[in-house]
């Protein structure tokens, strides 16, 4: 198999066949991000011959996979024609495949027409994972996400229109100290207008090689305390009113909270209240500082 650098996938893609069709990220500018630092170039699409070799190999020992997940930070950036060719290759080696997933940036959806999105859905692309991070204009702009709240809403609605499911990655702590509550309320207002199936929450963990670390050193930004991040999560959950599954996933979370938002909201916020009342900032901080790798 051809894999370049660390392979990142959402936790719920654990049973998918992981196939590298791109490596790296076309954007590569988010201030907090250190994810693709070990890739020796910014972005690359794998040659089709390489993808085909990998599909041939993985389909031998991962024969019954019902889902293929394309790796790389944003394979959905590829043109409609390339995505179509890749889906046809998947079908050749996995005739029974039910769907294809990948990470996508909001800006990867923009250049595709609604008809193309509809066809991609029919070709199997579904439940793509979008690193929306937040719905707070100030934070998205400061962090150089490369898109704003209007784009999140507009492009998600186009996915809704063609019936392509999507999940959001949310980044607790993105607002900075003192802005957690207002940021979470802004995010809820944006996320409430669209229909992510799952909202996966991670917690901001700042590594020295990130641009954000430099911003902190320069006095331009202050990190939320760990307890502020927990209050932020509580505010977000309280203010979200869409049918979605909300879950902290991955090592960056010092606590876990998850549930069906509408049904379990009261349970989730009560649990967060209990945690907030009993945790010690220093202990949580120690946990964060010992996270060598996400
Ligand atoms: S957060 Fe995602 S989009 Fe931003 S630089 Fe990292 S991989 Fe690229």
From TrEMBL:
Its cofactor is [4Fe-4S] cluster. The keyword tRNA-binding does not apply. GO terms for molecular function: catalytic activity; iron-sulfur cluster binding; metal ion binding. SMART domains: Elp3. InterPro entries: Aldolase_TIM, BchE-like, Elp3/MiaA/NifB-like_rSAM, rSAM, rSAM_sf. Residues 11-243 form the Radical SAM core domain. The keyword Transport does not apply. Keywords: Iron, Iron-sulfur, Metal-binding, S-adenosyl-L-methionine. PANTHER family: ANAEROBIC MAGNESIUM-PROTOPORPHYRIN IX MONOMETHYL ESTER CYCLASE-RELATED, RADICAL SAM SUPERFAMILY PROTEIN. This is Radical SAM protein.
